[in-house]
Known about the structure:
two-stranded antiparallel ribbon; 14 helices; Nucleoprotein; Capsid_Phlebovir/Tenuivir; RNA binding
Amino acid sequence: MLASKLISNDLKINLVGLDELIGYEGPGEDVSSFRQLNMREDEMPLVVRMEQNRARLVEHLLEYQTEFDSKSIRHSVLHKISNQRVNRKDDVFKMIRVGVEEGNDLEKIERSSRSECLRELRMLKNTYQLVSKASNCKYKKTLSRICQCFPLITCSYLPFAVKPPVSFYQMECISKNYPKVMMHSAFAYLIPNISDEYCSLLKKAHMLHQFEFHLTMSGVHRTNTTIIRETKLISIINSYTQTAINKSHFEFDTQIAFLKEYNLIFMKVDKITVGNEVLRAAKLWEQLEKKYIS
């Protein structure tokens, strides 16, 4: 398995976020009065819920558009591991597992963790200076950034995830047999940066999950055309995904080996092509582009 050699120092990855921010200034209506009444979200007027969901979507997207120094973060993590008196090589996997399953909100994770897990989480948090939000700082370490700095480990773990943000069942309903290894933004760094058709199809198939991911995290329904268009969701996903592809320092052979290992690509008469699962998802993404951009 490729995952066995993932933490080697000779694996050079340079991942960066995006520097293009969307021009949304927040909801026009003050919704604080509804919060002060301690109203449940389902009791609030529809327009208020929509504005809250819009605001959450915008805030969530900003985390994916903030530039970060992946080389510095990666080297910092590996340096701390090498300086530990005990073997801490499993720490990268532990952080990725928590990041995939629970997200970035460390305080929320701590509140829901059992005592033994809480001790481990706090150790990781203190050792690697983990934070819940990057706050436009390119050196801060969030769990999602850790996942993106080690994409081979992240994507190899995904099929074994217990509760990913977008469930396997949800993606199965959207696109039959959707590849589980694509279900994280880290996958983009494993797509070769060449103009061949199979690379374009891999990118489109991956972005289908990213679309569902952002909607799920913000509570926006995919039928809410207004919010999706106003937040430029499709364009933003396309932009940060392409940036990841452009900035990946993985060797082509390493990327191809991973894609073949998980049956995402095949050789067909001296030409690389994608499997039916990837092709199906890519076509669904094209339909989303026509619906929300045209």
